[in-house]
Amino acid sequence: MNLGSSITFVKYSPKKIRKLSDSAQQAIIDTISRVLLESDVFQDLFKTNEIPFQRLEAFASSMAKGITNSVPNLSDEMLKTISIHLTRTLISIAMSESDENSAKVFSNAISEAFVKLAIEMNLVHISRDSDSISNAFNQLIHNVLSFLEIHAEHNVPTSEKVTSSPTKLPIKDTKKSIKDSIFEKLSTVSNLFSSFWG
Q1: Could you give the 3-state DSSP secondary structure of residue 100?
Q2: In degrees rounded to 5, what are phi and psi of residue 35?
C-alpha cells in the first residue's frame, strides 16, 4: 500500500465536520494502539510509567510534530495545542496506578488522543472514501513513530530511573523496526478500516 497516494491532511478548521461512527473510531484506535505496541522504539520509551514529567513533555512534543508533519501552513499555536494535549494525556497515565502493561496503557491512551485530535482539529478529512481515511491515519502513525525514533536516537532511554547504568538504545534495531517493517504492519490497517465502509 502506498501511504502517500491519497493522504488527506488539511489545514485546521474550527467548523463542525462529519464524524466517524463510534465503531469505526474504535477500530482505528485499536489498530493504532496495536501498531504502536509492535514498535520496539515505543515499547522501550514507554516500558514503565516511572517517567519524569520533563521527558513525557519531550515525548509529547515529538509525537505532536509527527501528527502535524503533513499539515500545510501549520501555526506554532496549533503545534503547541496538540503538544499540550498529548502531554496531559501522558502525565495522566504516568500518575495512574494501573497494574496493566505500561506500554499497552500508554498506547491505548495515546491512540485515543490521536484520533480525537485528528478529527476535532480536522487534521484528517473525514469522507466516505475509506482508503483516504486509512491512508491518512497510516501516515500519521508512521510519522509519529519516525519522530519518536529520532527522539530516541538523541536522548537517553526511559530506563534511566530504573537502572543503575542506562545504555544507548539499540539504534540499528529500532531503525529496522521502523523502516523495514512499519509498512508491513500498517498493511492490515486499510483492510480493517475498509470493512466499515463495505
Answers
A1: coil
A2: -65, -40
